[in-house]
Amino acid sequence: MTFSENVTSIVDDLDLDKPYDKAIIKHRFLDEISYYEQKRDHTKKYYNGFRFIVTTGSILLPAILSMGQMDPNKLPKHFDMISYWASWTISLLVTASNGFLQLFSLDKNYFSYSMVVEQLKTEGWQFFGLSGKYEDYPNHQSAYKNFSKSVEGIKRKQVEQEFQNGKSENKKKKFDFKGEMERFAKEQSAPIIQNIPQQTITNQPQQGLNNLINQAQTLTNIAGQAQELTNIVNEKKENISNVLEKKEDIEKNLKEVSESSVKEKIVKEKIVEENK
Questions:
Q1: What is the mean pLDDT of residues 72-93?
Q2: Contact assessment for residue 111 and residue 117, using Cβ atoms and an 8 Å cutoff
Q3: How far apart are CA 130 and CA 111, in angstroms?
Q4: Which of 54, 60, 80, 100 has the fewest CB atoms below 10 angstroms from its CB?
Q5: What is the pLDDT of residues 124-165, one digit of tens each?
Q6: Residue ranges per domain, the chain?
């Protein structure tokens, strides 16, 4: 069973006031999922087929060429012709398959369609269960408009991407599947301000004030620690200055002592000479 068939009964049981709201969900939301599932499966067949040819040919071609380096006497008759045409055929298939992959952007389209299907399914399950971005809504009726807006946003982004793929400058860009999934996860986890209960809204200023107070206290502590470090540095500078002054005094005393010892030695030598 497809996704649309599985959730049809869930849509019928939603507590929506207007009957055409359920019809819109079926004919817009569920039809979009079925449409992109068909495009994904259709693209997947060609994508896997061409990738299989490229991978298999890349393995067989070196093997065939390496066999041609053997002793000709040990090879089958007309092996050179067989290996030539086999290598030519495999090379042509690999080149053509890789060219079709790049020409029709099969890899990019396959990943894009798969991601859109999963985005729509995730959006639908969150809406049906009033979870995730819809957990603050009291019922499905109050969350219906935001759900419709999200579905149209996903559809619009996909259409824009399909048209942009036709431009030459965008064909050179690789599809960032991981980045797109991270961006989608951030959008899903972002808080929805509209239609949030009044109690939640009134609590936000108090929470913001508490955060500012905590940040101010943290900055005060950092400033105090910086002042303590400054005082320690100044003390170390004073100690170093005292040590340098003592060093100068010691050097001065040593110089005086050495000069006096030299003078005494000279006097003694003169006395010795006179006595002689």
A1: 82
A2: no
A3: 28
A4: 80
A5: 999 999 988 899 899 989 999 999 999 999 999 888 887 776
A6: 3-196, 199-276
